[in-house]
Amino acid sequence: MLTQAVATYLDVRRAAGFALKSEGVQLKSFAAFSEARGQHYVTSDIAIEWAGLARSISQRARRLGTLIRFARYLRAEDEHHEVPPAVFGAEKLPRPTPHIDAASRSGYRTLRRTTYSTLFSLLACTGLRVSEAIRLRFDDITPDGLVIRVTKFRKSRLVPLHVTAQAGLERYLQERRPYAPFDDHVFVSLRRKPLRLADVEAAFHTAANRVGLPHGSGRARPTPHSLRHTFAVRALEACPDGRDAISKHMLALSTFLGHSTVANTYWYLEAVPDLMRDIADRAEYFVTGGRP
């Protein structure tokens, strides 16, 4: 009975567009496990026992979460099925709230200060990943913008630059080119080598401490990636009204950031209370038909 129920459930979910590859394997495993014990309905004790066979707490939580959704589906038509409690905790850890701040000074003298000032400014106005910025070469700077080559998801993209960003980058390059003429990386260290992630993080923490950014227990730690978060949220705040305009804006921003799916971009809606209030207000307006 459970084996057939799993097959039907997977057919329904997959028809709705869900792949459910690993979930399908898990549910079939649970059905065999439960039926081997003579139980043809979902029960909490067997569900928890089966999920508890996973090695880690997070794996147990994911397996049980899959069963909980399956049980809710079955219980809607047959109350013999039990919906097990989430005894292993949440399936996914909450994503950290981004620390939205900017840093434009590193506190260092000579080229190092100019390098990090330019780098942090570029991150803040383009939303680039740090790894993408430190891999930039001279040839990646074009009249149309920055060419980001084969990045996190093996995709390349063009990131347009505002005229002020172009001017700032050119000013930096005039100072930087004579310093390490035989290396074509845009950003270099005092060793005349490409910047490393550890170099950037250390410089950012120095800058954060110097300008007094808050940190400590219970606070999101400021990191260079915070500048990417800031860019994304500011872009969403500038989103125009209208369903079609919003859809196009989100798709453009997702492409600009180099996200693999637009769902990753929608997460930034949670980052600023103002955005959530706007969403709630618009939803209320839609439900009430524009009536006060």
Can you offer a commentary on this structure?
- By secondary structure, the protein is mainly alpha-helical.
- 53% of the residues lie in helices and 3% in strands.
- Strand 1 (141-142) and strand 2 form a beta hairpin.
- Helix 1 packs antiparallel against helix 2 and helix 2 packs across helix 4.
Q: List the secondary-structure elements in sequence, H or E.
A: HHHHHHEEEHHHHHH
- The strand line-up of the biggest sheet is 1-2-3
What is the residue-averaged pLDDT?
80
Structural class: mainly alpha
The fold-level CATH name of the largest domain is: hpI Integrase, Chain A
**Low-confidence stretches at least 5 residues in length (pLDDT < 50)?**
97-108
Radius of gyration in whole Å, from Cα?
25 Å
Distance between the termini: 52 Å
Q: Report the CATH architecture of the largest domain.
A: Orthogonal Bundle
Number of domains: 3
Quick one: CATH class of the largest domain?
Answer: Mainly Alpha
Q: How many beta-strand runs? A: 3
Short description:
The protein is mainly α. Helix content is 53%, strand content 3%.
